[in-house]
């Protein structure tokens, strides 16, 4: 006997029929201007995308998929699309959010040196990061153990370069020890 009844498709909460065996038909049904605005507000507050997506009731992969589609459309020259709107909002709002967080830490650094040290480590890690300070301390020890006869044999150019390096490293060590002194006096 043949089933003559027609199966009605399952519907999403907004009335859109589900496709592909009942799976969500994709991001196009949920990416609205209101969702884009909510993402923008979350990014401006510095929230991670996982928190933003969960607060909107989406799996974190949903927004990632939208952004991937936006990047593809952007590469293809598409300019009028909700995905492109999302990408533009995402880039600008994320930059504003990061700037807000950075400024908060910068303001805190006026009262607490650790906030300034945190910024220096991240903005100029090659100079102020832990590994750089340890490397420079090692270089300083190596220079202090250098024989004066070896120094006499160096060219004027090499001596000037060595002197600059020594001056820079000495200054960095002094700054690092000043940070430690401040920490020790703060208790």
Beta-strand percent range: under 5%
* Share of residues in helices: 55-70%
Radius of gyration, Cα only, in angstroms? 29 Å
Going by helix content, strand content and strand pairing, the class is mainly alpha
The major sheet is characterized as:
none
Shape: elongated
Tally the structural domains. Answer: 2
Spatial gap, N to C terminus: 86 Å
Q: How many DSSP-defined strands?
A: 0
Helix and strand pattern: HHHHHHHHH
Total number of helices? 9
Any key phrases for this structure?
single chain, 187 residues, mainly alpha, 9 helices, elongated, disordered C terminus
Explain this structure:
The structure is a single chain. By secondary structure, this protein is an all-alpha fold. It has two domains: 27-107, no CATH class; 109-186, no CATH class. The chain is 68% helix and 0% strand. It contains nine helices and no strands. The model is unreliable at 16-28 and 180-185 (pLDDT under 50).
SSE layout and pairings?
Elements: H1 33-44, H2 49-55, H3 60-75, H4 82-108, H5 113-123, H6 125-128, H7 130-144, H8 148-152, H9 156-186
Summed up, what is this model?
The termini are far apart. This protein has helices at 33-44, 49-55, 60-75, 82-108, 113-123, 125-128, 130-144, 148-152, 156-186. Helix content is 68%, strand content 0%.
